[in-house]
From TrEMBL:
Residues 1-59 form the HTH iclR-type domain. This is DNA-binding IclR family transcriptional regulator. One of its GO terms (molecular function) is DNA binding. Keywords: DNA-binding, Transcription, Transcription regulation. Transmembrane segments: none annotated.
């Protein structure tokens, strides 16, 4: 079971992977990895990509993920706000929460443009080079390089100068209440995020707007920053009202 779960996590991280690649990552024989993949494929949790001998996650995970999302209180209050913001700005809006050194996207609304539209739902993304990740990392209080190195996901390799620069940026995120990521996570992808707070003031999630750099240049990011902050505050307000 542990190996099967690890296979799902590897495919979630890599998108697609060959049997040999997965076997090497698990440190098991090729035939063992193939048997595990076969069992997962029978339940629709993974699927083979054509005849290339590679695998990816299967559609049977979608209803499972949906049931998890239903239990997340934050998604109850986020989706109407995300839908309105996505329609108004014409870009993808996502909600992410922290998960073991990553940001996991638990809600999403797409704008009317279908060009270069990412499906972020359920994806784990890094904390150090995404807008939502920076917001969540700043809220965690990792203000110095040593604390940052511990807060990041295992395997994240940043030099001391990079950690110092990130700590400086996170201080600005805390001060200004938002974070940008301009082609840091993917070439040609820009994003901005703002924190969502619970009634006690703790940051429990981050709302982001992302899109291709040609539609969201730095100037456009600056223009929509107040909208993103306002949407995150509206969700925080709805959570506050719900708990009263």
């Amino acid at each position: 079971m542990d190996r099967a779960i690890t296979l799902l996590e590897l495919l979630a991280d890599r998108g697609e992977a060959a049997v040999g690649e997965l076997a090497a990552a698990l440190a098991v024989h090729h035939s063992t990895a193939l048997r595990l993949l076969g069992a997962l494929a029978e339940h629709g949790l993974v699927e083979q990509v054509g005849d290339r001998g590679t695998y990816r996650l299967g559609f049977a995970l979608i209803p499972l993920a949906g049931r998890v999302a239903e239990r997340l209180e934050v998604t109850t209050h986020t989706h109407p706000v995300c839908e309105e913001l996505a329609a108004r700005l014409g870009e993808t809006v996502t909600i992410a929460i922290p998960d073991r050194g990553h940001a996991v996207n638990v809600d999403q609304a797409r704008g009317p443009s279908m060009v270069t539209a990412h499906n972020w739902l359920g994806r784990l993304t890094p904390l150090h080079n995404t807008s939502t990740g920076k917001v969540l990392l700043a809220a965690a209080g990792a203000a110095d390089p040593d604390a940052l190195a511990t807060a990041l996901a295992p395997g994240t390799r940043l030099s001391r100068p990079a950690l110092r620069a990130l700590a400086t940026e996170l201080a600005q995120v805390q001060a200004h209440g938002y974070a940008w990521a301009l082609e840091e996570y993917e070439p040609g992808l820009h994003a901005i995020a703002a924190p969502i707070h619970d009634p006690d003031g703790a940051v429990i999630a981050a709302l982001s707007v992302s899109g291709p750099s040609y539609r969201l240049p730095a100037e456009r990011i600056a223009e929509i920053t107040p909208d993103v902050i306002a949407a995150a505050r509206e969700i925080s307000h709805r959570i506050d009202l719900h708990r009263q």
